[in-house]
Amino acid sequence: ACVSDDILHTTTPPTLTFDNPVNGTWVNLANRMSFSISGTCSENGQNVVISGATSMNVVCTSNAWSANVNV
After folding, report:
1. Mean pLDDT in each 10-residue stretch from start to end of the chain (71 residues)?
2. 3 SS3 class
3. In sequence order, what DSSP letters do the residues of 18-66 get, joined into one string?
């Protein structure tokens, strides 16, 4: 049996932006355990990888991503 599949290859790199936190936002005792971050992304269904002091993956859905991180 012959197996085939379509592969879509583009030369456009994925994009990612941060919309939150906005400039001037501070981490403090009240929000440090659940600090909200979010933005836009161009690759629905793909992981947005967050790494550093906190590490996690969130899925790009409807061209958006968001997470609450413990900083």
Report:
1. 79 93 94 95 96 93 96 86
2. coil
3. --BSPTT----TTTTTSEEEEEEBSSTTSEEEE-SSS-EEEE-BTTEEE
Cα distance between residue 35 and residue 25, in whole Å: 10
pLDDT score, position 22: 93
Indicate the burial class of 7 (C-beta count within 10 angstroms; 0-12, 13-18, 19 or more).
Answer: exposed
pTM for this model (two decimals): 0.79
Rounded-to-integer distance, Cα 62 and Cα 12, Å: 18
By DSSP bridging, strand 47-50 and strand 35-40 are unpaired
Map tokens 């413990």 to a residue: 70
Neighbouring-strand partners of residue 59: 47
What's residue 4's pLDDT? 80
CA distance linking residue 12 with residue 71, whole number of Å: 33
